[in-house]
## 1
Amino acid sequence: MVEPLVKRAYETEKKAAASYTDGLGLIRGQGLRYTKVEDVVGRIAVDTIIHKHLMKAILEAQKELEKLAGEGPIEEVKEVELVPEQKALVKRFAEMHLEIEKDMIETYQKMAEKMTHPLFKGLAEALVENEKEHHRILAELIAKYRE
């Protein structure tokens, strides 16, 4: 289970972010503003704050996913024959979400182009690929139940 590791990472990043922020204040107070020392510590402080918030977001996502999982992972995926009403429902559902996925692909692509921090840029680029995969799967579902 990854949750304890994420909690540990979050707590560690939280402490580190506070320490880097305090340290940055001390460094600046010692007349080291606009120096290489401030630059290095500042860059690490920024990354650490981002890490802290990413770990918190992962923890929150894991809690939400636990509710969604219900009884746990699906043991066996069965292929069943759908009646026309079920096919129409699945097709409508997939078409509606296909538009959402298209919008998210475009949004994440624009974010990736505009992001300057490498962590944010990499995350946006990874999200683009994830949304493209969703789009592909939904398009396959629509094609399968088109009648």
## 2
Amino acid sequence: MRIGELARRSGVSERSLRYYETQGLLRAERTPGGQRDFGAWAVDRVIRIQALYAAGLNSKKIAHLLPCMRDTDGGPSEIATAQLVDELTAERDRIDRMIGDLFRTRDVLSDVIDTARVGLDASP
């Protein structure tokens, strides 16, 4: 599929897809005319990339991680290392800390809202 089709199917801009390619996160075959040609697998790959970016990983870490993710056949990757597992565990722990921080911030905001409502209810 051409880059425009991949953008449409994945919900990611063509510009982002080109960036992913320059970062080694995505690869395309080239047609005789030089146009990018992606396989159907690319949609899932882009969705995974987006999820990893949303989790706060940078492109270098994602490039290191992608080959170790489960293949489309569901089998585990054969290139995972103990160091990579440690790095990914640290990333997961960082995300868990961020989630905890967000819950605490939400609780503070809820307290502020409740206090403001009480003040509004007491107003004549």
## 3
Amino acid sequence: MSNRIKCIALSALVLPGLGQLYRGSRVKGGVMLLLDNVFLLGGLFIGLRSAGKLMVAGKQGLTPEQVLAAIQMDSPYVKWLLGGFMIVWAYGVVDAAFFKGDN
């Protein structure tokens, strides 16, 4: 398997930024890993917060419509986080394929 294919696979399938690190671009790979973790952890935080609203809904006697409205208030943030992650992911794959590093 060639270096180029390994870098594309690392960035596309495992985590964006790993292909850049493999090819020798430490700063770019580190920044991409940092951004990916921020997007993923932010999405996880919002998802867990929404799950918490579902768990306490039964105890508080909320209707399904009220719970859904409370969860939908978080949805704009999820869309931005997912969009940011997809942009970094796509950039990582293209950059890993065409970056001319030392390796």
## 4
Amino acid sequence: MSDFDLDLRTVEEHIDDELELEGSIILGFLDGETPDDEWLEAISKGNVLVLNVDGDVNELAAGFARDVKESGGNLVHFRGFLLVTPPGVDVSTERL
């Protein structure tokens, strides 16, 4: 036997700390009617946006996309939807 010492209580405490996620998944429409500041506020609170794009995604997201990217968030356009995530939430596109 080895002298391997594992304190499971300490590990569990760290796992709980690391897995705390805040926010929700918000479904909506990206059609130019919602002000850019509302999308930015939702992202700043840790929410993920799944927006059905009605129009040109580049034009409709121009008012908030740069701020999201600069803060470390992600934007992914997929099948008519724009997924917008806050910093720390990645979107895996490996299976596409």
